[in-house]
């Protein structure tokens, strides 16, 4: 299948699920960005060398931040607080995009599935009808 036919199929599935066209396009753009980031994370040492300070708690949980998930942060033995370190810039960008995708999905009754492997779909959606179009039958692939 061509990239355009994959995109057309995705747009048709989203339309049948009641997702507006502009939201479906936004999800396609996010998936393309996540795919580029996944490729950089797998194959580029330059992406690993381009580091920025950890932005702190990036999830709603108190026990996690980007530097701890990446392995560069440490936890203070006495207080138990995270001592933040630097993280690759692409990881910060990935976290920002994933946060935006989660917000869009919640508003439209979709559940995002993130896969950091660039050899397949880096973003899949579980739709209310339960429809799937991937081999693992987990969700709808976002081209």
Characterization of the model:
The chain is an alpha+beta fold and 143 residues long. The protein has one domain. The protein has helices at residues 3-16, 21-43, 45-49, 66-70, 89-107, and strands spanning 51-53, 74-75, 82-83, 86-88, 111-114, 123-126, 140-141. The strands form three sheets. A three-stranded antiparallel β-sheet has the order 5-6-7. Helix 1 packs across helix 2 and helix 2 packs antiparallel against helix 5.
Outline the biggest β-sheet.
3 strands, antiparallel
Mean pLDDT across all amino acids:
87
Q: What percent strand?
A: 5-15%
> If you compute it from the alpha carbons, what radius of gyration comes out, rounded to the nearest whole angstrom?
17 Å
The number of helical runs is 5
Net shape: elongated
Strand order of the largest sheet: 5-6-7
Oligomeric state of this protein: single chain
User: Strand pairing plus helix content: what structural class?
Assistant: alpha+beta
Query: SSE order, as H and E?
Result: HHHEHEEEHEEE
Return residue spans where pLDDT drops below 50 for at least 5 consecutive residues.
Answer: none
Cα end-to-end separation: 11 Å
Number of strands: 7
Helix coverage percent of residues?
Answer: 40-55%
Query: How many domains is the backbone divided into?
Result: 1
Keywords:
three-stranded antiparallel β-sheet; 143 residues; 7 strands; two-stranded antiparallel sheet; single chain; alpha+beta
């Amino acid at each position: 299948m061509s990239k355009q036919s994959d995109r057309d199929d995705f747009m048709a599935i989203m339309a049948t699920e009641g997702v507006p066209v502009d939201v479906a396009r936004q999800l396609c753009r996010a998936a393309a960005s996540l795919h580029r980031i996944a490729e950089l994370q797998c194959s580029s040492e330059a992406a690993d060398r381009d580091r920025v300070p950890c932005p702190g708690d990036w999830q709603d949980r108190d026990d996690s931040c980007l530097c701890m998930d990446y392995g560069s942060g440490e936890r203070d033995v006495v207080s138990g607080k995270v001592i933040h370190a630097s993280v690759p810039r692409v990881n910060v960008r990935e976290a920002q995009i994933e946060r935006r995708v989660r917000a869009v999905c919640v508003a439209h009754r979709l559940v995002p599935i993130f896969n950091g492997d660039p050899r397949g779909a880096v973003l899949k959606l579980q739709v209310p009808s339960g429809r799937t179009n991937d081999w693992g039958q987990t969700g709808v692939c976002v081209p």
